[in-house]
Amino acid sequence: MTCEWCTQFLESKAFDSELISNAFVGGLTGALTAIGILFLIVFLAAIYVYSSYAWMIIARKLKYKKAWLAWIPIANGAMILQLGGFHWAWIFLILIPILGWIALFVLAIIATWRIFEKRKYPGWFSLSMIVPRAGGILYLIAIGFVAFQDKIRKRKR
């Protein structure tokens, strides 16, 4: 004896295997997308923390009084400009689309060149910013060297 409701349920579209597999694939796609976005957010946060910490260490080693500015997004650009010998107000070039951004980018390269030379590293390390594709990684490596590795001065014997 089967109940009439059970028979109707098994014959209905509610128990269709195609609908269930489509729901599973859609759910799996959504879950993988969410995991990917979460991974991207964590990865970008880790890069931000690393670069901010490296710039704070560089600023401290150059005896900059407000090294904590490295943690504030636009203020860290002003700090880099100041460490490189420019006035902090040049950061307002960010408000001028395209031409201002290009000018600020050039000023940032010049400022980092000067900063790297103050720390006794080759200034051309700052050119890593303009290398296509690998430039971001090279830049992170360069600020890591400048921040965390002190040059050992050889004694003359």
Question: What is the count of structural domains?
Answer: 1
Total beta strand runs: 0
Average of pLDDT:
88
Based on Cα principal axes, name the global outline.
elongated
Structural class: mainly alpha
Report the radius of gyration as a whole number of Å: 27 Å
Amount of helix: 55-70%
Order of helices and strands: HHHHH
Distance between the termini: 103 Å
- Helical stretch count? 5
Could you list the spans in which at least 5 consecutive residues all have pLDDT below 50?
none
Q: Which sheet architecture does the biggest sheet show?
A: none
Q: Kindly report the oligomeric state of this protein.
A: single chain
Which strand-content bin applies to the residues? Answer: under 5%
What can you tell me about this protein's structure?
α2 packs across α5 (135-148) and α3 (73-83) packs across α4 (99-118). The protein has one domain. Helix content is 62%, strand content 0%. It is built from 5 helices and no strands. By secondary structure, the protein is mainly alpha-helical. The model has no long low-confidence stretch (mean pLDDT 88).
SSE topology sketch:
Elements lengths: L3 H8 L5 H45 L11 H11 L15 H20 L16 H14 L9
Helix pairs in contact: 2-5, 3-4
